[in-house]
Amino acid sequence: MDQRQTAIVDNPDPSQSLGQISHLALDIGGSLIKVVYFSRNRDSSVDHKGESSSNDNPGVFNGNRKHTVLKGKLHFAKFETSKINDCLEFISSKKHHLGGFQHHENPAKDKKFIKATGGGAYKFAELFKEKLGIGLDKEDEMDCLVAGANFLLKAVPREVYTYVDGHKEFLQIDHNDLYPYLLVNIGSGVSMIKVDGDGKFERVSGTNVGGGTFWGLGRLLTRCKSFDELLELSHRGNNRVIDMLVGDIYGGTDYSKIGLSSTTIASSFGKAISDNKEIDDYKPEDVARSLLRMISNNIGQISYLNALRFGLKRIFFGGFFIQGHPYTMDTISVAVHFWSKGEAKAMFLRHEGFLGVLGAFMSYAKHSLDDSVVNQSMQSLVNGSYASDTNYNPQNGDWSDNESIPCSLYTA
Ligand SMILES: Nc1ncnc2c1ncn2[C@@H]1O[C@H](COP(=O)(O)OP(=O)(O)OP(=O)(O)O)[C@@H](O)[C@H]1O
Ligand SMILES: CC(C)(CO)[C@@H](O)C(=O)NCCC(=O)O
């Protein structure tokens, strides 16, 4: 049986039949709302275990405490923040399933709370209360990003890959040699975080030229209607039509003395100075390509400079700007390789856009009354169940678009 039902869906069908949903978390960003929720398997029996270890889930249990094991799946969904009503409708369709979480500091019996991170957890708190009668239990965005990244890096096999010459190469992360690393989260804006351990980190830099800039400028310049359309355009475009290359300045030759080949971009959009053309004279696909290249290159360069500042060799890139898009990853990888002279490495995460919301989901373990030990249990169960997943192709590490993670929650 296929273990992965609906998962990364833009407009999830609210009538989708699922087992009981017990936990749901949100990351409400400037561009997108990310949702993670746990649904119990319909046929899952509830086990009660109290050993310090078990064959099923080694290393999960502590001492002689009894835990209830809820078997099920983690589902992922996203909505555009500008269409928050779709998200409210989606949650409303699940609301009667939600188990009535109580705020750890305010356990008012009649209120439901869900974990939420991102700026929208503040901005839209009243809206959730008003429309759904649900309170948002706010978790810090940076804490959540780091918790989500550490979880994926340590617990999920074949999560991390490099992108070199058009190929994904999956990497095995050594848990004992993970820190320090630089986490670059490319959302609407970009955060750069030096991570030294679990919960040990510092946001060392950021840039306002990020995914929102690409989508916003791209929409204005190409008049395309969706982010996916803009990416598709960029796929077909040729940036050399608009970008000024070193060769354009140097009469077709390299400037080898300072290490610049004739094909290096000297100035993004620089040809538009002298072409005597208007925006409509350029093909939208060429504009989209130049824009994607400019922004990816810039982020790659700033990331490298921050890695250099702190002597970090590994840079993990997350955020929905990447979207597993080959040209984006190639540009970032080439920029990091070029500027670091091969010393630093750009790495990507399969669940790139869900770091923050996974961190928020895991924070149930920290606070909730039922004392879920989500973290460890996801860790061992995710490990155990991926091996038997029929849709997973270990040759190239690809997943189909629709993906959920089989997992268990342990509640005391
Ligand atoms: N379907 C989509 N609609 C809009 N933007 C998309 C879509 N898919 C990918 N993106 C890109 O992803 C970016 C948002 O990424 P992400 O969800 O990680 O950030 P965010 O949480 O919204 O932003 P921030 O953290 O800065 O508040 C967008 O700015 C855009 O570049
Ligand atoms: C403001 C946040 C943290 C919101 O997610 C993000 O959009 C960001 O990191 N922007 C870049 C801000 C800056 O450091 O210039």
Automatic annotation (TrEMBL):
One of its GO terms (biological process) is coenzyme A biosynthetic process. One of its GO terms (cellular component) is cytosol. It comes from the Eukaryota. It holds the Pfam family Fumble. Its EC number is 2.7.1.33. Pathway: Cofactor biosynthesis; coenzyme A biosynthesis; CoA from (R)-pantothenate: step 1/5. It is an enzyme of class 2 (transferase). The keyword Isomerase does not apply. It catalyses: (R)-pantothenate + ATP = (R)-4'-phosphopantothenate + ADP + H(+). InterPro entries: ATPase_NBD (IPR043129), Type_II_PanK (IPR004567). GO terms for molecular function: ATP binding; pantothenate kinase activity. The keyword Membrane does not apply. Keywords: ATP-binding, Coenzyme A biosynthesis, Kinase, Nucleotide-binding, Transferase. This is pantothenate kinase. It comes from Jatropha curcas.
